[in-house]
Design goal:
27% of the residues lie in helices and 30% in strands. By secondary structure, it is of the alpha+beta class.
């Protein structure tokens, strides 16, 4: 899906710092880079469950929001959220030929969620 629009975090509701609305460091830049690379993004909570998905129209959008794709995204978020001392972004292959780049959003040691950019 070339020319992909990355809208998975929606209006930044999942990536904001709460009431203050301050984004987690790097989330906006990460999403912009994913957009530039033609990757779609999803926001997942700290447990790895999808909170916000791409809002692409038509068949392509329905497929991006399907159960199999959601499963790939959640597996990538869960794997990236595993304890890692220095890594905050990782690349995984949640299914053959499907690549995920995941950035974990955290405040100190508290993980708030993850942004997953998916390359198909």
């Amino acid at each position: 899906m070339s020319g992909a629009r990355s809208t998975g975090v929606g209006s930044e509701e999942g990536a904001s710092g709460g009431a203050g609305g301050v984004p987690f460091p790097g989330v906006g830049e990460f999403r912009a880079r994913c957009r530039a690379l033609g990757l779609f993004t999803w926001w997942c909570d700290a447990a790895g469950a999808v909170v916000s998905e791409p809002d692409e129209p038509g068949e392509g959008g329905r497929w991006l929001r399907s159960a199999p794709v959601r499963g790939w995204v959640e597996r990538a978020a869960q794997k990236a959220s595993a304890p890692r001392p220095a890594e905050r972004a990782i690349i995984t292959e949640p299914a053959p030929g499907v690549w995920a780049v995941t950035l974990v959003a955290a405040r100190g040691r508290r993980k708030a969620g993850a942004v997953v950019g998916l390359g198909l």
